[in-house]
Amino acid sequence: MELYYSIGEVAKLTNISIQTLRYYDQIGLFKPSYVDKKTNYRYYKDSQLYYLDIIKSLKYVGTSLEEIKAAQQFTPVQLLTFLEQQESVIEDQINRLIEIQQSLFKSKKQMQEQIAINVFNEVYEKHEEAIRILTIAPEKLNASYIPNSYYSSLLKTLEIENTTISSRYGCMFKYASYRNIEEITYDHIFTPLLTDRYITNLTPEMDVQTTPEGRYICIAFKFTEAMYFEQYQKLRHYIEENQLSIIPIVYEIFMPTNYAPNETDEFIVELKVKLT
């Protein structure tokens, strides 16, 4: 003899609310075996509960109700194909979450490094890990002015790639003796890449590079045009005076000190040169 359950009993047995069961009936996803015409009470066969298990399983992996309703008409072979497709969707979501976690970790590390700078206007040494960067080669651009169009190009590329954007920017120029800031000409402008994703949509001027791991000689300061050249001279004097062996590339990192659009712009600049 077939057992029948009221909607309340089904709710308790399956841990699905009465409101949800009524909604499933309304949209034709899971209808009762019969409805008492006098009382309008819904009753479900014992064998029907199996279909609720399928609905719950598919909902658990993120399948929409519309897709579940369509899947109810599948043959076992079609259902297998559908589940494989759902598995692929879940794998994509997992990979995306891993990327987000990775970008959060790197963003936190950048902030920790910035907060850890407690010596300004003085030369210091520190260890740096290798960092992937997206670079663009500018045309005759010096340190006294950087048009936002270069940063916008980097941002646009990262947006097309659907990857996380860093709030930190940098530049690279040759380590040399300069007479003034106008003589410092950038070879590359860059932004750190916060994930390991392969970047495909590169313009001819762009490249993905990796800054080398190792010990760096550094100086940090609050940016003004006058302060910039003074601090570069101080860094260079320290290197020459101590006869340090270096790779002749200066990495310049711009770090904002506030993130409110209505606040006065203020940046910390760190200049660093890798020791050999």
Task: Note poorly predicted spans.
Answer: none
* Share of residues in strands: 25-35%
How large is the radius of gyration?
Answer: 30 Å
Total beta strand runs: 11
Furnish the topology, listing elements before pairings.
Blueprint: E1 4-6, H1 7-14, H2 18-26, E2 34-35, E3 42-45, H3 49-60, H4 65-71, H5 76-116, E4 123-128, E5 131-136, H6 148-160, E6 169-174, E7 186-192, E8 206-211, E9 214-222, H7 225-241, E10 246-256, E11 267-275
Short structural summary:
By secondary structure, the protein is of the alpha+beta class. Helix content is 39%, strand content 25%.
Please describe what this structure looks like:
The chain is an alpha+beta fold. Helix content is 39%, strand content 25%. It contains 7 helices and 11 strands. It has helices spanning 7-14, 18-26, 49-60, 65-71, 76-116, 148-160, 225-241; strands at 4-6, 34-35, 42-45, 123-128, 131-136, 169-174, 186-192, 206-211, 214-222, 246-256, 267-275. The strands form 2 sheets. Strands 4-9-11-10-6-7-5-8 form an 8-stranded antiparallel beta sheet, covered by helices on one side. It has a 3-stranded antiparallel beta sheet with strand order 1-3-2. β2 (34-35) and β3 (42-45) form a beta hairpin. The longest helix has 41 residues, at 76-116. It is elongated, with a radius of gyration of 30 Å.
Q: What keywords describe this structure?
A:
276 residues; alpha+beta; eight-stranded antiparallel sheet; three-stranded antiparallel sheet; 7 helices; elongated
